[in-house]
Amino acid sequence: MAEARATGTGDGYEEVLIGVRGGERPFTVEALTDPGRIVVAIEG
């Protein structure tokens, strides 16, 4: 199980923390456009 929380914005950036139960897990991050977004894939 994973949980994400936005922690704030500033200077055109937004910070999001992602927590995963059960300890560290492998993940990948990909930047996509149109619309702009970040995709975080957590394995397991």
Explain what the structure shows.
The protein has 44 residues and is mostly beta strands. It has one domain. The chain is 0% helix and 66% strand. Strand 1 (2-10) and strand 2 (13-20) form a beta hairpin. The chain is flat.
Into which percent range does the helicity of residues fall? under 10%
Instruction: Please tell me the total number of domains.
Output: 1
Q: Count the helices. How many?
A: 0
Poorly predicted runs: none
Q: What is the average per-residue confidence, as pLDDT, rounded to a whole number?
A: 91
InterPro entries: AMIN-like (IPR056303)
Organism: Blastococcus brunescens
Protein name: AMIN-like domain-containing protein
Domain AMIN-like: 3-42
Outline of the structure:
By secondary structure, the protein is mostly beta strands. It is 0% helix and 66% strand. The protein has one domain (2-42).
How is the topology of this model organized?
Layout: E1 2-10, E2 13-20, E3 27-32, E4 37-42
Protein name: AMIN-like domain-containing protein
Pfam family, one: AMIN-like
Domain AMIN-like: 3-42
List keywords for this structure.
44 residues; mainly beta; two-stranded antiparallel ribbon; two-stranded antiparallel sheet; AMIN-like domain-containing protein; AMIN-like
